[in-house]
Amino acid sequence: MITRTSTRLGLIAAAALLVLTGCSSTEAPGAGASASPSEDAATVHRVPAGVTLTDAWVKATTEGMSAVFGDIVNTGSEDVTLSAAGVSESRMVELHETVDNGSGQMVMRQKDGGFVIPAGGTFELRPGGNHIMLMDLTGPLVAGNTVTLTLAFMDGSVIEQAVPIKDFAGANETYESEAPTPGSGH
């Protein structure tokens, strides 16, 4: 668990560094695709070309865990992989998928390898489906407020975006680490 947390914190720190490095550049946001190979890689890939986060929101909660939902849209000509995410209000963030636990029950678990957003496609983050899990919250997430979400991609590019917090009564999923059901083998 410490290794996972350390790795994620390292990825988020790297993403933040890329954002800060990108802010010192004189290029327009999203520019850089035509940069020469001798330029710093952080300025070349600060924002993934053609990738946007739309209709994003975070579930309001007073403590414990929450999640980020929305659509990651890729209008580009190549697949991109979301490898990590972070918000300052959460000490631990994981990419989660929904899978059958072997006994017919759908459970949530960490998605190794990240989420692939297909070229010309959309990757949905939904309650009861794939989502970005926020754990070990530093305080309540109050409906009407926002959090700043950082998405880090495998190619080193990042998106940083303010995301609204909303009330939502659902998304009370079962997680793979919870007590196994009889005959599940987990």
Topology readout:
Layout: H1 2-23, H2 41-44, E1 51-59, E2 66-74, E3 80-86, E4 90-100, E5 106-110, E6 115-117, E7 121-125, E8 131-137, E9 146-153, E10 158-166
Parallel strand pairs: 1-10
Antiparallel strand pairs: 1-2, 2-7, 2-8, 3-6, 3-9, 4-5, 4-8, 9-10
What can you see in these coordinates?
Keywords: Signal. It holds the Pfam family PCuAC. It comes from Mycetocola tolaasinivorans. This is Copper chaperone PCu(A)C. With 186 residues, the chain is mostly beta strands. It has one domain: Immunoglobulin-like (Sandwich). Helix content is 14%, strand content 39%. It is built from two helices and ten strands. Strands 1, 2, 3, 4, 5, 6, 7, 8, 9 and 10 form a ten-stranded mixed β-sheet that branches. The longest helix has 22 residues. It is globular.
